[in-house]
């Protein structure tokens, strides 16, 4: 435990203001927290909460229109707010370093990574050329970059995402800072690489006693990494606590709602996710009183008119909520939401028929790689390499895997958005290759797509009536007043109002736009929806709304889904069966429960073990995979997973394992699944 004298950084009543054409925006409004030596403090919140701006304010790394206008940022008895630019530059990188979400935006593409590390050291220390080179190598070894002797001369674009993040950490460590500020350091990484980077940060912290401010939206990462948590909402701290107490008994409605809105590995399929109505308010329209009151189910009159202070609670905790006021509620202990607040879904088993709605056999998609002005083909990216799958009527099939595994390409091939190189797709017993254009058009009506990004998938110049009405017209389903009536119905089905149909996409929030995307997909009354990362771009509270909606629609309309996602807990919550993909191939298929309790493929095991668990009392027993997914243009021989598999034997390098049915409905592609299943 660290004592008060160990305090390294003390932020007091910090305010950060951005000057804009719409006036001054208070992105951070009086935030206070402290961090001690060797401690990890997580700043948690949804997008627009002010968590990243708070972190950037500490080092005065704000855009030119932003400024810390009041408060104190005390670091080693210096107020970083008031020191000169020269002084803060000396502290940056030397005593406080920063790691960003996307290393590509911070690494200079024209310099080798070795040069970028040595440049950082040179700013703060005088060393000879050889000493600099040796120090850079030492740092690259420390952060586990494979083959550092040759990689030191590589340019950022020659490294993978995980390797670039390791380089960023090496640069951050270059001058042995006492504090690292890590802003969403693993958000852009795949889950197995995230596990490597989190482990690396923990190891480095143990080795050097570095304090870490971790800015994140991921409660699983918080539970695993943090000692203390600061929850921010609309620019203010709403709760502050040690990590265990926070997860055991959150003391603010927003914190508890956040925790209950994310599906966990053990969340029952029947449980409706808790949703927070509405969205994080825009800084232009900050609500009066408690800023959370328009979304809070417990708001009383006082919440609308009077802003609550941060009440001090037992164990050094704080909550900015009138419920925590001892004069109002006595010795209130929470939790705030009760089981009765959480309605349930019926299960969808009665909807699932034995009949296949969609069948995919040996599907392949090879993208040619070309070179020169004659565009000579020099190889192929084997994005999908022999996928065989089926989706039953009324079933939700989850498709998981890390980026580049080919899962989205499978979705596009099934809907006919792109043509396959080889293989067959059948829908309702009809082979797509044997049907004419007219029949293909009918088929398009029956299979629809929900895209990931609700911002770019809707044409900004079209009204919602035109966007949702377009497929109705294309398929001759409705025109004129009938179209308007149908669009109104569809908007209401997805939880919007029919009065919204004359608005444009920019007038809606991210979650509302995703509802519009779903309404458009439903316009043709499809039987199968391909949902490609349909909730990945949304904040967790909004994600819960959309997941509940998708489950609701599936039950009401008897739809089938192919639910493609990198998020295993989301997939487990919504899917009946799950297929796991690696480098263009299916490696395991089984029902969603069995996949999580008895996975047979080493990759499935590693994927599941890498998921951060939002419970600080559980220390996950993790299988840390080495390296990253190899390039699909030059996949490994034999079993494509052998370069990363902790159980690989000689046979794995030579012979490709076929997908075999082990028990009814459970297929796996691994030579040694029996041996692995006991580990
Ligand atoms: S102060 Fe009122 S509105 Fe704000 S979180 Fe507490 S109960 Fe809800
Ligand atoms: S076949 Fe070999 S390399 Fe592939 S997953 Fe099984 S044990 Fe690992």
From TrEMBL:
GO terms for biological process: peptide transport; transmembrane transport. Residues 9-259, 358-608 form the ABC transporter domain. Its EC number is 3.6.3.-. The keyword Transcription regulation does not apply. Keywords: ATP-binding, Hydrolase, Nucleotide-binding, Transport. Belongs to the ABC transporter superfamily. This is Glutathione import ATP-binding protein GsiA.
């Amino acid at each position: 435990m660290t004592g008060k004298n160990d305090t390294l950084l003390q932020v007091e009543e910090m305010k950060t203001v951005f000057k804009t054409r719409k006036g001054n925006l208070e992105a951070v409004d009086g935030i206070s927290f402290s961090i001690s030596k060797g401690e990890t403090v997580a700043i948690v919140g949804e997008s627009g909460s002010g968590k990243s701006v708070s972190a950037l304010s500490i080092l005065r790394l704000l855009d030119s229109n932003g400024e810390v206008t009041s408060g104190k940022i005390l670091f080693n008895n210096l107020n970083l707010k008031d020191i000169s630019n020269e002084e803060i530059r000396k502290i940056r990188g030397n005593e406080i370093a920063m790691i960003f979400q996307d290393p590509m935006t911070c690494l200079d593409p024209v310099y080798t990574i070795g040069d970028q590390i040595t440049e950082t050291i040179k700013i703060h220390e005088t060393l000879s050329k050889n000493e600099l080179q040796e120090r850079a190598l030492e740092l690259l070894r420390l952060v586990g970059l494979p083959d550092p002797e040759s990689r030191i001369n590589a340019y950022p674009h020659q490294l993978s995402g995980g390797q670039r993040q390791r380089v960023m950490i090496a640069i951050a460590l270059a001058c042995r800072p006492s504090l690292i500020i890590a802003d969403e350091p693993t958000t852009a990484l795949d889950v197995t690489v995230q596990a490597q980077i989190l482990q690396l940060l923990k190891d480095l912290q143990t080795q050097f006693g570095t304090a870490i401010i971790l800015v994140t939206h991921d409660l699983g990462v918080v539970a695993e990494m943090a000692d203390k948590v600061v929850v921010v909402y609309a620019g203010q701290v709403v709760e502050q606590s040690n990590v265990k107490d926070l997860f055991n008994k959150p003391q603010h409605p927003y914190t508890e709602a956040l925790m209950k809105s994310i599906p966990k590995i053990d969340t029952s399929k029947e449980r409706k996710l808790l949703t927070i109505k509405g969205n994080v308010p825009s800084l232009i329209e900050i609500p009066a009183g408690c800023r959370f009151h328009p979304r809070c189910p417990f708001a009383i009159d006082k919440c609308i008119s009077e802003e609550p202070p941060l009440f001090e609670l037992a164990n050094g905790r704080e909550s900015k909520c009138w419920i925590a006021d001892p004069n109002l509620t006595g010795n209130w202990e929470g939790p705030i939401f009760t089981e009765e607040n959480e309605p349930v879904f019926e299960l969808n088993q009665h909807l699932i028929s034995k009949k296949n709605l969609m069948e995919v056999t040996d599907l392949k998609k090879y993208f040619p790689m070309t070179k020169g002005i004659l565009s000579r083909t020099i190889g192929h990216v084997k994005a999908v390499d022999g996928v065989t799958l089926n989706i039953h009527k009324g079933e939700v099939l989850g498709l998981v895997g890390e980026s580049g595994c080919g899962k989205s390409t499978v979705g596009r091939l099934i809907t006919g958005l792109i043509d396959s190189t080889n293989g067959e797709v059948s829908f309702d017993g009809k082979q797509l290759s044997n049907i004419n254009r007219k029949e293909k058009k009918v088929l398009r009506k029956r299979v629809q797509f929900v895209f990931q990004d609700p911002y770019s998938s809707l044409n900004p110049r079209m009204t919602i009536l035109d966007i949702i009405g377009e497929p109705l017209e294309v398929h001759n389903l409705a025109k004129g007043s009938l179209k308007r009536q149908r669009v109104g119905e569809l908007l209401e089905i997805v939880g919007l109002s029919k009065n919204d149909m004359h608005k444009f996409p920019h007038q809606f929030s991210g979650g509302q736009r995703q509802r519009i995307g779903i309404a458009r997909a439903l316009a043709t009354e499809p039987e199968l929806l391909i949902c490609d990362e349909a909730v990945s771009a949304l904040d967790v509270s909004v994600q819960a709304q959309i997941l509940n909606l998708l489950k609701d629609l599936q039950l009401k309309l008897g739809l089938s889904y192919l639910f493609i996602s990198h998020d295993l807990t989301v997939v487990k919550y919504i899917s009946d069966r799950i297929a796991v993909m690696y480098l263009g191939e299916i490696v395991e298929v089984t029902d969603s429960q069995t996949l999580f309790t008895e996975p047979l493929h080493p990759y499935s095991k590693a994927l599941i073990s890498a998921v951060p668990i939002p419970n600080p009392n559980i220390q996950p027993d993790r299988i840390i995979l080495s390296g990253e997914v190899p390039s699909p243009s030059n996949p490994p021989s034999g079993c494509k997973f052998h370069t990363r598999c902790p159980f690989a034997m000689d046979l794995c390098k030579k012979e490709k394992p076929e997908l075999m049915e082990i028990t009814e409905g459970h297929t796996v592609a691994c030579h040694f699944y029996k041996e692995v299943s006991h580990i």
